[in-house]
Every structure is written in structure tokens, then in C-alpha cells.
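Minutes, project check-in
Item: structure for the 256-residue chain
Input as provided by the requester:
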Amino acid sequence: MTAPRTALLPRPRAGEALPDPTVPRRPWATALRATACGAAAAGPVIALATGYAPPTPIHFTVLANFLIAGAFGWSAVHSWRGGPPLSPRLSGGVLLLAAVTGLMYHLVLVNYGGSPMSAPRACPSTGTCWSTAASFLLHTATPLTVAADWLLLTAPRTLRLAHIPLWLSAPAAYLALTLTRGALLSPGAPARYPYPFLDVDTYGYAGALTQSLALGLLFAALGVLITTVDHLRPNVTGWFQHRRNRISPPGAGGLK
């Protein structure tokens, strides 16, 4: 006689809940989310460690990628354990950060040469190769894997317009951090203001805040677009989930 599945599970430690045997692990979701976590963490680490045109840790791209790495690392562990996915309030904010990072770089900064993370297309030296790899991970690989997770592995129609103010709290906190840091540093300090539109010495606080508000409105519009697409896209999550026994429920004795 076959022992029940729960008997094969390890006994939990004190205060630890027993894993639910009816909840399947999701290897596809785990693999993709681990890839997103690795890309988001490797990009800034490579750029900061190689010494070739490294970004300062205060750059939005670097901080956004570290936040994405943390969120997707947590999500990968829960996918492997059969736990719940990220809350839409958090997953939507992570998706917006990734979209802002990728779109701002590919549509604006590359065309105008204003990116502190811009890298040459050629790779004539080892340092240039590292810079190219870091830029690809930061601005292309991470946003694409985050978008793939959203489109393929998360249920649609979960994002809400009411979530957008929460999603914008990260860019708002970054603005406050940048302006406070710039005020504390002495004039002429390197990378005092990491982006030209935040340069208070050039535009003053009114000008810097006005330009930041314009960007914030663009980010909010992008959040509206993401939410709209989320409510229009089909549900394809079943393609990557384990198919359960359609004849008997999990844990049933014999076939019915």
C-alpha cells in the first residue's frame, strides 16, 4: 500500500508550516525569475567592479536593477516552493521600473548620448567588453525578462489604476534622495547630480523639480498603458504550469 504523499515530506521545524502537497512547484517560473534576478544583479555589479566608466550607485538604473533583483529573487524562491506570486502592487511597480529603465535608455539616452551608462557597440578591449555586457544586462536583458515574466507567467487583469501612485513612490523617493545628496555635497563634487535635468546649479530647484514632474507624468502615463495592456492581454499562464490529474483530485485514493 502506497504511503500518503504527506508522509514523504520532511517534518517541519518548530514554528515552520508544513508545505502544501497540493501546490505544485513551477520550474518554468522559477527559471525565468532566477534569470531576471541574475541579470538585474550582475549588470550593476559588473559595471561597478570592472572600473570601466562605472556608474555611481546613485544612478537610477543601478538602484532600480538592485530592487528588481531583490523582488525577483524572492519571487523565484516562492515559485520553487509553490508559494504565492508577488502582489500586483509590488509586481506592477517592478515592471514599471524595468520599463522606465529600458525605454528611457533605448528611446532617449542612446539617441542623444546623454547616458552615464552608454557603451560603445564595438568591443576592441576587455574593458569595453565588460562595459558593453553591463549595459546590455542593465538596459535590455533585465527589462525583457521582467516583461516576459509579466506576459507569460502572471495572471492578467490584476493590475489597477489605484496602484500607480504606489508604483511612483520609488521614483519620487529617488528624486528626494538625489536632491538631498546634491545639497550635502560641495559644489564641483563628481557626479553631484547624476542626471543633467537634476542639476540644481544649472536649473535651480524650480527648474529641476519642473523637469522631474514632467518625467513623473510620463511615468504615470506609462503605468496607465501597462495597466490597460494587462486588462487586454490573454491568459497564457496555463501553458507553463504542471497539468494535474484530470480524473482524480490530488490525494484521492483510486480512479473515479
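Outcome recorded: The first helix runs from residue 27 to 50.
No further action items on this chain.
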